[in-house]
Amino acid sequence: MPETLIESLDHEGRGVAHADGKVLFIDGGLPGERVEYQSFRRKPNYERAQATNILSASHQRVEPRCAHFGICGGCSQQHLHFAGQVAAKQRVLEDAFAHLAKLKPEVLWAPMTGPAWGYRHRARLSVRHVAKKGGVLVGFHEKRSSFIAVMEACPVLPSAVSQLIQPLRALIAGLSLADRLPQIEVSVGDEQIVLVLRVLAPPTPADESALRQFADAHRISLWLQTAGPESAQPFHPLDAPPLAYRLPEYDLRLHFRPTEFTQVNHGVNRLLVRRAMALLDPQPGERIADMFCGLGNFTLPIARLGVEVVGIEGSAALVARAQGNAELNGLAARCRFAVANLFETDATQLAALGPIDKMLIDPPREGAVALVKALGTPGSTQAPLRIVYVSCNPATLARDAAILVHECGYALRGAGIATMFPHTSHVESIALFERT
Fold this sequence. Notes:
Strand content: 25-35%
CATH class of the largest domain: Alpha Beta
Radius of gyration: 23 Å
CATH architecture of the largest domain: 3-Layer(aba) Sandwich
Number of strands: 22
């Protein structure tokens, strides 16, 4: 079996090496390690491979906590010490700025870190009946496979959710629709756990009785989803309190449906909101825009700090949720929300918002290229003096940063990461831009 020296990690946490004129991307290898490997995909210029034997281990290698690591595709970096994961993600961000945007932040902030385990308050579990593997399986997909990993527990899920995996397997195995239930959406609030069962056939009365008993026994709420996310409805108990999470530093409580987007990691989200507010530094009399505002995760803290804020979001359902959360928290007078497709924004649409002093941008992975182009050139009265950009994709952040700096007259004052998804290659980050 061939062997090689791992030189570095790529942006997906794979070991990088070179052999025979090709780049090797080796799952399970860490920088400085000599490994034996087996290729599973060969292309003219590169190969994908799996480390099969560690001949000399890195000092940052640790024993994975999860017994399913290496088979389950949910985590990719449990073999790397948490401090090493943080450093690797910081390098991914720096490399994206340097190589894609030809930029270097004036300041690199200390990473925002939270618990490394039990952090995942949202998850989508797959369900499948596989007789040769013992019946019903509930869990994440295996690496590079459509098969479902045989899981007994998951340490990145809250313990109360992890402990449900085995009981869920037994529950579903006893239902008439066991082979018509392909997915379970997990959503955890501060006060309750909701499981949304994707059902492709109506449950029988016996099924309904079993589901109610399960919900009561485990003190959770069950919802049923018959079609798209909007079809999800409470099943039992019908009098459960609404899902919610708190931002205690701003005395806020935000309600959400289990199928609506919220940050996976509640603890790191609080740190991210705190840093975003410090960077925005709202001042009396200012008007701030929150673009891709969702259900108000950043909008309401801005309003709580005493300024007028306008939240823009492409989903009408999320805008309605944000408005409801503003009313719930007594902030409706300071908030205005609107539905708009920010992926097609132009300067005219942006001008219709009226004067904006500062802006927060929190887009999905696609980034906000149309929006940043619409911000115009230096001297534009519509271009905010300060932009705080929260990103879940370093590549699109770097692309948008290049536009802001090289075309729109902004300076990249600082940037840093947040460990929203420990043990994965996902990089959450935040950056500050100011007009020069």
